[in-house]
Amino acid sequence: MINVYPASSRHSGDLGWLQFNFSFSFADYYDPDNVNFGPLRVFNEDYIQPSRGFGIHPHRDMEIVTVVLKGELKHEDNTGGAGLIRPGEVQRMTAGSGILHSEVNASDTEVANLLQMWFLPEAKGLTPSYEQKAFDQGAMRNTLLPIVSNTIQGESIVSIHQDMSIYLSEPDAGTSIHYEGSASRKIFLFVMRGEVTLNGTHTLGRSDSARITDLAKLEIRSEQGAQFMLIDLPGIE
């Protein structure tokens, strides 16, 4: 089953310094029918104005993954983790037993556009940690490039404490990307650029998403070229 969620269906708002889009219940937005998709608890697309951001704040028992689409984000936490996240990089923060961190747009002039995902961990009370790696953006052309996983290993793949993997792909015009997994698992797909069609029946544009269940094979085709994220998740609720 493929359920498409248009970009306009997200909970969105504008705080001046922050323009946000929530795919699931988050902060002051709560919908009891839209809390999570398997262990995927949060999927936010944010636009942070120059030199603004989130000051020091706490998290606990969550795997937090950040991918910057445009601009740069400065991260600091009380474990000693610190760095700038730019396009072509991915960060994972394990909040575990408790962590304090801040996230600020490091540019004085450019708006930062980013995706932030929260996943329920495989266990509570994990030791807080931080990991950041760069990946070859050219390597996602016409294929699925894993950037986060607990089963796939590689120099540019960030580990995570959950049975899941995140892939990026950038198909050329007229190209199909095929994904084969297990019908017992879930797939979350988000389009960052362009337009794709899933299994020839469902079309998604910029910032649209799909929640996919009970399918072992998926064809993602783009007629004009696109960029998308695919998250393979366990079938738990």
UniProtKB/TrEMBL annotation:
Nucleus found in the keyword field: no
Domain Pirin N-terminal: start-end pairs: 10-118
Binding site for Fe cation: 57, 59, 101, 103
Cofactor(s) recorded in Swiss-Prot or TrEMBL: Fe cation
Molecular functions (GO terms): metal ion binding
SUPFAM superfamilies membership: RmlC-like cupins
InterPro entries registered for this protein in UniProt: Pirin (IPR012093), Pirin_N_dom (IPR003829), Quercetinase_C (IPR041602), RmlC-like_jellyroll (IPR014710), RmlC_Cupin_sf (IPR011051)
Cofactor remark: Binds 1 Fe cation per subunit.
Key words, A-Z: Iron, Metal-binding
Residue ranges of domain Quercetin 2,3-dioxygenase C-terminal cupin in the record: 148-233
Highest taxon, organism lineage: Bacteria
Protein family (similarity comment): Belongs to the pirin family.
Cited PANTHER family: QUERCETIN 2,3-DIOXYGENASE
Name the UniProt record assigns to this protein: Pirin family protein
Organism: Paenibacillus sacheonensis
